[in-house]
């Protein structure tokens, strides 16, 4: 109504001032009639005013209209879930046919948009549609070819479903299936990240049936590395179930759980899941004995106290037995040094003993020192941090402990005092303890300097760190079933203080102590594997020479393949190789086994799209409301129904059986148009005569 009134112009037959004067004169008898209750006068006055309105000649303008060109957006979902079944074929067929139809229609341009999705972000169609719609001049509709699983569906109509004037444009949903689908998935509700070796991990899982009522019987199976499966539990979908998985070794334990298939489900991709359990030892116990108070003791305490898996027992020897000092013992220590308890009764309960700047000087009887050597040979770990005390009388080298030390320091000229930056040896570049130490940092290209080190006259074992002149700084060795390391400088604490940039002291000491405690990831003889971009990468580390190194690759079905490994240039003791993994059917396992030289490791195919794989159905339930509010239609491509594109007048239905409509929007031409009388003369005459008749009739009454 407002638009109609705004299009009226006036073309009076008499001057406007004369019409206004006549209208004013007519209002006087009308006022008289209203005061006296003379209705006949009111009808006659109305007839005169109606005649004056006709003389004012109101006319309605009718502009010439033209149909606007149409822009439609064809959005194609190419996310990983579209690889399931025949979805991609259905979509490509519909895409080609819609493009052919678009080229045949007048003034219609179809713009294509592919949305890849995946990469851990799921499918995000509407973000892409909103950006693409900004470039459309006259958007008339959107055709969305997808499986219906989108992860950014808005609650309200998005900007892409409105044109510049605010008019809603239709969203036509073309689904890549024959109808609503079902899917079964296996979810892990809870699983401990760490499990103490020898104990059982309690895992809680649940099977969900999507698109169909739950409560159906289902088996949960263990898919072994040899391709065999074992039934772990009988349950029903929608009900949580508890599983017990034993952890028998340190490091990573992989377990693949699979739910039995649901008849007719869309995909088996999410019927299985990988459980990763990290086997750890229960509370590593470390005994730290500092010979005299020193800066290094603070570094060790800070490092070991920060590790929640370590129980630290620390003693500092403030006074040797032969020291002449009148200070009462009660002022030097809260408790006496429990030598018998630590080095006789409970020595085997420790995973690592650290002797930092320790000078015996009759502090420990020889029997206790023999216990330390015996402790190492039976599987314990010992780290000796040496300083000037190694050249003085009472050194550990002259005790039974000296027989297991990997280096010997002479009493004369055994100390070097000059600035130097520690460097990794050729072996240190390959050894797990020092291989991963960062080279770049606040220190620049070289680690910060130390100013004192011990000279050795003989070494055994493996030297990982040395001075620029080649003098050993860090020497590792194995004695019996245990391990021993010797740090031939007491100034690693300078790195923690940032001396000229410092160095990676925390990482070095952490890795060194964990190697001594036989952590699996720091083993010198190890086999590692990982999967990246469809390639299985294998790395073999061995400090002993190996020839013709080949790895045995066992796929999830139990089939074997041979992978040759090649030595890495300038990295002694490391061999690597890679193998492209073939594409596998969805129902097969995901754990690969690698064996070489008596070592074995497992690796699982990574979950590249966990959000995408949560629900693999093709369904209309998620987008149906949005499609309905936009006025669009819903079509199942699997039934062979590819809608015909129709250009329909604005205000008419936009979809029907087998067709999808695009509204034709019209705009007025800047020039041209026509006009018609708002009050035609014949209509004005009839109304005037009728009103005069009513006035006479009222006068007769």
TrEMBL record:
Domain Putative glutamine amidotransferase: 355-496
Pfam families in the record: GATase1_like
Transmembrane segments: 14-34, 41-57, 677-697
Keywords, comma-separated and alphabetical: Membrane, Transmembrane, Transmembrane helix
UniProt superkingdom: Bacteria
Protein name listed in UniProt: Putative glutamine amidotransferase domain-containing protein
């Amino acid at each position: 109504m407002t638009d109609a009134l705004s299009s009226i112009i006036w073309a009076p037959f008499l001057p406007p001032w004369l019409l206004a004067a006549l209208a004013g004169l007519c209002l006087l008898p009308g006022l008289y009639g209203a005061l006296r209750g003379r209705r006949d006068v009111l009808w006659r006055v109305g007839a005169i005013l109606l005649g004056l309105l006709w003389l004012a000649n109101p006319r309605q303008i009718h502009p010439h209209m033209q149909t606007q060109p149409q822009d439609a957006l064809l959005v194609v979902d190419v996310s990983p879930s579209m690889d399931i079944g025949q979805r991609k074929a259905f979509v490509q067929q519909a895409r080609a046919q819609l493009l052919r139809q678009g080229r045949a229609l007048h003034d219609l341009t179809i713009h294509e948009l592919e949305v890849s999705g995946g990469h851990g972000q799921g499918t995000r169609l509407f973000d892409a549609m909103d950006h693409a719609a900004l470039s459309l001049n006259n958007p008339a509709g959107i055709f969305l070819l997808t499986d219906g699983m989108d992860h950014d569906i808005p609650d309200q109509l998005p900007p892409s479903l409105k044109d510049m004037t605010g008019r809603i444009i239709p969203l036509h949903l073309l689904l890549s299936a024959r109808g609503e689908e079902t899917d079964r998935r296996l979810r892990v509700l809870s699983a401990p990240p760490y499990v103490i070796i020898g104990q059982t991990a309690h895992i809680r899982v649940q099977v969900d049936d999507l698109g169909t009522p739950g409560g159906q019987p289902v088996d949960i199976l263990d898919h072994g590395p040899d391709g065999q499966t074992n039934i772990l539990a009988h349950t029903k979908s929608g009900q949580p179930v508890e599983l017990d998985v034993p952890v028998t070794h340190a490091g990573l334990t992989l377990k693949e759980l699979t739910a039995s298939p649901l008849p007719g489900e869309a995909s088996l991709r999410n019927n299985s899941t990988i459980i990763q359990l990290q086997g750890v030892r229960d509370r590593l116990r470390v005994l730290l004995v500092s010979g005299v108070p020193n800066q290094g003791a603070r570094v060790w305490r800070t490092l070991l106290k920060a590790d929640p898996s370590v129980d630290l027992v620390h003693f500092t020897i403030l006074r040797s037995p032969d020291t002449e000092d009148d200070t009462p013992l009660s002022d030097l220590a809260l408790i006496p040094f429990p030598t018998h308890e630590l080095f006789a009764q409970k020595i085997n309960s420790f995973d690592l003993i650290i002797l930092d700047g320790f000078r015996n000087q009759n502090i420990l009887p020889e029997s206790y020192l023999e216990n330390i050597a015996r402790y190492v040979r039976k599987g314990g770990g010992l780290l000796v941090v040496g300083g000037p005390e190694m050249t003085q009388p009472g050194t550990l080298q002259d005790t039974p402990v000296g027989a297991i030390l990997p280096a010997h320091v002479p009493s004369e000229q055994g100390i070097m005092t000059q600035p130097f930056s520690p460097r990794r040896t050729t072996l240190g570049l390959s050894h797990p303890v020092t291989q991963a130490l960062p080279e770049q940092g606040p220190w620049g290209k070289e680690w910060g300097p130390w100013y004192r080190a011990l000279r050795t006259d003989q070494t055994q074992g493996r030297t990982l760190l040395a001075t620029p002149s080649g003098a050993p700084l860090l020497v590792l060795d194995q004695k019996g079933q245990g391990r021993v390391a010797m740090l031939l400088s007491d100034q690693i604490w300078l790195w923690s203080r940032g001396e000229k940039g410092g160095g990676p002291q925390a990482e070095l000491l952490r890795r060194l102590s964990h190697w001594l405690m036989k952590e699996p990831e720091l083993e010198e003889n190890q086999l590692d594997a990982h999967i990246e971009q469809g390639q299985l990468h294998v790395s073999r580390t061995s400090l002993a020479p190996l020839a013709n190194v080949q790895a045995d690759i066992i796929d999830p079905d139990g089939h074997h393949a041979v992978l040759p490994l090649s030595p890495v240039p300038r990295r002694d003791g490391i061999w690597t190789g890679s193998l492209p993994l073939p594409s596998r059917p969805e129902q097969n396992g995901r754990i690969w086994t690698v064996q070489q030289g008596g070592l074995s490791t497992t690796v699982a195919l990574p979950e590249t799209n966990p959000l995408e794989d949560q629900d693999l159905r093709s369904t209309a339930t998620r987008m149906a409301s949005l499609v309905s509010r936009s006025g669009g239609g819903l079509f199942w491509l699997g039934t062979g129904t590819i809608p015909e594109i129709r250009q329909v007048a604005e205000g008419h239905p936009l979809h029907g059986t087998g067709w999808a409509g695009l509204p034709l929007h019209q705009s007025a031409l800047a020039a041209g148009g026509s006009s018609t009388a708002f009050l035609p003369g014949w209509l004005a005459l009839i109304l005037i005569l009728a009103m005069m008749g009513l006035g006479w009739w009222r006068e007769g009454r």
